[in-house]
Amino acid sequence: MEYRIIMIGCGTVGQGFLEILERKAEQLLDQYDFEPRIVAITDKLKGSVVAPEGLNISKILYRLKEGQRLNTYDGPKIKTEEFLDPLNLIEQVEAEILAELTYTNLKTGEPATSYIKKALRTGKHVVTSNKGPAALHYHELKELASVNHLQFRIEGTVMSGTPVFHLVENGLAGNDIREIKGILNGTTNFILTKMENDQMEYEEALKLAQELGYAEADPTADVEGFDAVAKAVILANVLMGGKIKPEEVKRQGISALKRKDILEAKEAGQRFKLIARIKKDGSRIEVSVSPEKIPISDPLAGVMGVQNALTFETDLMGEITIQGAGAGRIETGFSILSDILAISRTRSKTKN
Amino acid sequence: MEYRIIMIGCGTVGQGFLEILERKAEQLLDQYDFEPRIVAITDKLKGSVVAPEGLNISKILYRLKEGQRLNTYDGPKIKTEEFLDPLNLIEQVEAEILAELTYTNLKTGEPATSYIKKALRTGKHVVTSNKGPAALHYHELKELASVNHLQFRIEGTVMSGTPVFHLVENGLAGNDIREIKGILNGTTNFILTKMENDQMEYEEALKLAQELGYAEADPTADVEGFDAVAKAVILANVLMGGKIKPEEVKRQGISALKRKDILEAKEAGQRFKLIARIKKDGSRIEVSVSPEKIPISDPLAGVMGVQNALTFETDLMGEITIQGAGAGRIETGFSILSDILAISRTRSKTKN
Which of A21, A35, A158, A317 to probe by mutation at the B interface, max B CB count within 10 Å? Predict the structure, then answer.
């Protein structure tokens, strides 16, 4: 079945998604009867193009790799511009799906939230890896999707394409989740790993993380726990029905940890990890992000480097842990495909 | 939506399943619009009862706990017998789903395979945690289900209710799986854990496992790797399209391992695990079960005691590891519920 997709934003994640579509076109058609048609892309930095018949993905990727703007696209199209306004585009271009791939804004969730609302109001499913709308406006957007018989899917907001929401929605359906705890930030986990394994001080490990591209020039969002807080809030609200705001989360980063602390913990058979913890106690949900000394036997203790992991404590299945990539161009691009395939599974069944 | 379910076999798994239904009735109806109706149970040791209006699950569980036979059931019913023939029962009782819960036979897959075929030929979906039919006849049964527009689901055959097949089917759709490796037998993992942590010799650890009910009086199926082989074959055939037979698997158990070997590995930063490994190389699939020394940094190395875990090596997502229970009354009972809920998701979408 054919799916017309609008992409708002075409940065790292968007390009990862397009690369997967290029590489996997045949397999997706064969195995899932899935035929994506990218009908429009608009990106402030990279230009805009509208092509209801579908863009030639190889041509688009070629342009992006050469640093050319999308408005120089020379395949069949009806419009190119330096920058087409996303709200107009979403309203005017016919499509089944909006892939919202703009930047994360954890203060207001904008402009992504407005794009998502526009799509849901004009009959389009929405998939996104953007943490802003999911952390700040999940219930409102989910409700808007629901009344319009549409889906709002967010697999990539936590642990990139590692199937966290898919796992709970399908494989764990029927379980009550009592607690979720996890390592949700690869940068800080990399730093802690280096402090333990290579006996670095915090500053040295941070510098290495920056050199390797794991940490940004201003590392605050990672090392002070804001990124993990956003993900913990999403888990609390999506999987436990919480109504938590990021500012309500008890938060402590890793910047005050010393090599000495790490090595003392190790001596005692423990390991420091930046743990996001969401605990349900009756109708009360408590969320925290802080460095915790966990026993070396805990499945989360073995998660080293930039890997992420989550443990779900459930009533029927006890503890279930999933470990995988927490970031990455292809990995987050896959989350977009994964959510679109989930929509296609529902839709093709409806039409059978 | 109401689902009429026939249960063939009512041992540990069947009772775990019934306990979950009793405990979760309200939640299943509220959250999933799912209303199970057990219309017949037949078990050689426990008796048989047929009740098209649905059995009172609390009454059934009470009888089972008191060691009474099911044919003494005093709720509304149309028939009770010392033992009703499963094939006749499946043919004659109207139902949407067969829960096949008889004993595992890794030589022929019988009698379970015949029950499953009968159900698929008479219009019933099949869910089972029985390794026999899945290890020996998966493709034949899947094909029979498919031509009859029915599902044949086997979540509980590997890692009990820990969602292995759900994970791949939904969350990892679109990935090629290049290799699967895992710890699929809790008994042997418990023994290896005790040999390392408590410095026991193999015989001593085995005796403890037997005392705790993890190992049987004749422990061959576990300690010589046959149980793990069956699960590895299922993974190879279901998830990689293999046509592997159990006798084609390279198999080595743990009974020849000495405490000395375990401790020497530990000194070298490694850990012995009984690893099931399924590797795809072009169209060739190689399956092995053997003790391997894996680096302590491998996610599988941290899996201790009776826990199980699997790592999927994929083309898009790299390595994804899931860890959870590998056995248990409630955990395997949940696998049956989980597969039935999966069927109900498809079905309710079709009818929307």
Answer: A317
Looking only at the bridges linking them, the beta strands covering A308-314 and A177-183 are antiparallel
ipTM of the complex as predicted:
0.96
The confidence score (pLDDT) of residue B348 equals 58
What is the residue type of A78? I
Neighbours of A215 (CB within 10 A): 22
Cβ atoms B131, B154 nearer than 8 A: no
Q: Which pLDDT tens digit goes with each residue over B135-183?
A: 999 999 999 999 999 999 999 999 999 999 999 999 999 999 999 999 9
Asked about A194 being catalytic, the answer comes back as no
What's B282-330 look like in SS3?
A: CCEEEEEEEEEEEECCCHHHHCCCCCEEEEEEECCCEEEEEEECCCCHH
pLDDT, tens digit (0-9, with 9 covering 90-100), for B268-310: 999 999 999 999 998 899 999 999 999 988 999 999 999 999 9
Whether the bond into A111 is cis, omega within 30 of 0: yes
In chain B, where the domains are located: 2-162+330-351, 174-324
Q: Does domain B2-162+330-351 have CATH number 3.40.50.720?
A: yes
Overall CATH class of domain A173-324: alpha beta
Q: Which helix (DSSP H) or strand (DSSP E) does residue A12 occupy?
A: helix A12-32
Fold for B174-324, please state it: Dihydrodipicolinate Reductase; domain 2 (3.30.360)
- Tell me whether A24 touches chain B (CB under 8 Å): yes
| Chain A contact present for B162, CB below 8 A | yes
